[in-house]
Design a protein that fits this description.
alpha+beta, 2 domains, 3-stranded antiparallel β-sheet
Length: 85
Amino acid sequence: MPIYEYSCDECFERTSIFFKTLSDTKKPVCASCGGAAVERVISNIAILHSSQDLHRQYDSMARYRDSIDEKDPFDGKGDYLAENL
């Protein structure tokens, strides 16, 4: 039972349409404006991380941060890390 997302060419809204079967030939229409000029788009995905994964990521960034010499003018990473970590 797939759910496909379509983008309307007239109002630029995204519409999710549920199909009962893979072979369903329902003609999609925009839920916002009712227009038939819709184009199928790739759906957004979400990746869920456990708290353990987030701690591992933080630990690896901390080790990376500690290995950088912020005073080295040839290492452009120091400025980025000083601002973002």
